[in-house]
Amino acid sequence: MRAKVVLALFFFVWVSLLSRVFYLSVHSNRYYEKLSAENTIRTERIAPVRGEILDRNFKPLAINKLGFRIELDPHLNTKRSRSRLKETVKEIASLLPVLDASKMLATYRAKDSHYNHHPVTVAEFVSYEDILPVYTKLSLLEHVRISPAPKRYYPYQRTAAHIIGYTARSNQKEIEADPILKLTGIVGKSGLEKEYNSYLQGIPGERTVQMNALNEEISVLETTRPVENRNLVLNIDMRLQQYISKLMKGLAGSVVVMGLDGEILSAGSYPEYNPNTFVSGISVARWNALINDLDMPFTNKIVNGLYPPGSTIKPSVGLIYLSHGISQWWFVTCSGSMKLGNRNFRCWKSWGHGKTDINKAIRESCDDYFYKGSLKVGIATISAGLKQFGFGKKTGIDLPNEFIGTVPDRAWKRKRYNEPWYIGETLNTSIGQGSVLVTPIQIAQNTALIAGGMLPVPRLARMIDNNLTKPVLRDVLTEKQKKLLPIIRRAMVQVCNHPNGTATKHITSRVKIAGKTGTAQVIGISQATRKRLKEEEMEYYTRSHAWLTTYGPVRHPKYVVTVLVEHGGHGGSAAGQIVSKIYDKLLELGYIKEKM
């Protein structure tokens, strides 16, 4: 019996050993072959060159400035090689005084390790002009590698900064969301650079090489070129954009010039900033100056500036009135104020407008007409109508982080403040005050709706992958509203052309235009105040915002020009000349062929 147990044990041990030998020599062969191949064959990803951004006439707005990256071989930070590392860095700094030797040393030591077999970058970018005179000497240095490294550059500096945006070093969160950033290290942070980042950055290529035991390259086995240089062509005309930047010098606000199909010829947020300061990193002092400036130069006011629209929404509110039972012949007698409960709701014209119908109410911007009209239709109808006409929602413009603004009603107030709605708030909403907030692009889009009868989706991109972008027009008006539009348009023509129009005396353009002024209060006025201060008598940051939104030419509307001047006071006086000069420029550049 003992002999059988010993034999069985002996047999079991030998079977186990043979099984293990079989597993190691046959079954695991593929696994070790793979490890062996990985030790001798390396696949490297090739970073694509970022595409450029061009205006409609192919003028470069965002380009890649030619420069070079300086790298050092790995494993120079050992005791044996440390002196050699210091000497090499010192030689580089002597040839390129723009570089700091101590910073390069610190960068190398932070990035190098026993597990790293790739060159270590010690200078991300050295300009072509700096490196050219010493290129030969630099390339002869042992352990030094020089490779092309484009750097984003914005040749127009401040002009159109808010729509173009800027690129900067990607952070860990961005890299996790998009692995390509680990290779390029650069990502669009704002504007079109961010909106179209995945398109502009391209697709990496691959390079498969054979290595020896000393980690030296023997041969290139296969190369796949990256998909790169994907250019983005815009609808923007930089001749017009630069001209408007000059008109807005010293002012804060926003300007939008847009075709009725949504094609944006120019869009600016003022004051502007220089995006080149962000490419290589901005100082804390400069950053604090930007974000603490009361004129908010870093805010893209086109899509992120929220303002009371003031009287610019009166044409839309008037259309809501007409399409919900108020006759175009209905009139009020404006005496300069309207009493509701214990409050007086004033008209801007303290002595009143007298007998006023819809035409005169828009032409002369009579508040009393809209107060009394709002009591007839109610806040639910006004709120729903404004949303139908594009307010309180994104326009769809191809810029990131667009704000939707606010169109208040009972449900909105209950949800936000847990408070009831008061009838006085309906009156304030009807004249674009109270809780109503809009962006300049929403006002421009709404003006295009009135001028053309369709709500366009604003678009900055003109050509992507050599394909023209297509306009998107939304049919949001009812048939009844479309039939009523001529009444609103006629009143808007009179705003800019009738002797009593609120903008007439400030319009000097050779192009006949229609529009609506707006004076949006930024502070409340006490009921105890009997005589209001004139805008020019008030402290600057307490003055009203000035709006003027227009379309033209009147006979065959093609373009919308919307101007907002922060703390500008009255819309006509603050923005009339700016709007007039823009239309004259459109005529000069050939965008408008007729004056009428």
Q: Going by CATH, what is the homologous superfamily of the largest domain?
A: DD-peptidase/beta-lactamase superfamily
Name the beta content range.
Answer: 15-25%
Give the C-alpha Rg. Answer: 33 Å
Distance between the termini: 119 Å
The count of strands amounts to: 25
Secondary structure tally, helices? 24
Find the structural class using helix and strand composition. alpha+beta
Helix content: 25-40%
Mean pLDDT: 88
Indicate the low-confidence ranges by residue numbers: 526-530
Broad CATH class of the largest domain: Alpha Beta
Major sheet strand order: 7-3-2-12-20-21
**CATH topology heading of the largest domain:** Beta-lactamase
Topology:
Layout: H1 2-27, H2 29-40, E1 41-46, E2 53-54, E3 60-65, E4 67-72, H3 82-95, H4 101-111, E5 120-127, H5 128-131, H6 135-140, E6 144-148, E7 151-153, H7 161-164, E8 167-169, H8 172-177, H9 180-184, E9 186-188, H10 191-195, H11 197-200, E10 205-211, E11 217-224, E12 232-234, H12 238-247, E13 253-259, E14 264-270, H13 276-279, H14 284-292, H15 301-304, H16 314-323, E15 332-334, E16 337-340, E17 343-346, E18 354-356, H17 358-363, H18 367-377, H19 379-388, H20 410-417, H21 423-430, H22 440-452, E19 455-456, E20 461-464, E21 467-468, E22 473-474, H23 479-497, E23 514-520, E24 545-552, E25 559-565, H24 571-589
Parallel strand pairs: 2-12
Antiparallel strand pairs: 1-10, 2-3, 3-7, 4-5, 4-6, 8-9, 10-11, 12-20, 13-14, 13-25, 15-18, 16-17, 19-22, 20-21, 23-24, 24-25
Helix pairs in contact: 3-4, 12-24, 16-18, 16-19, 16-23, 18-21
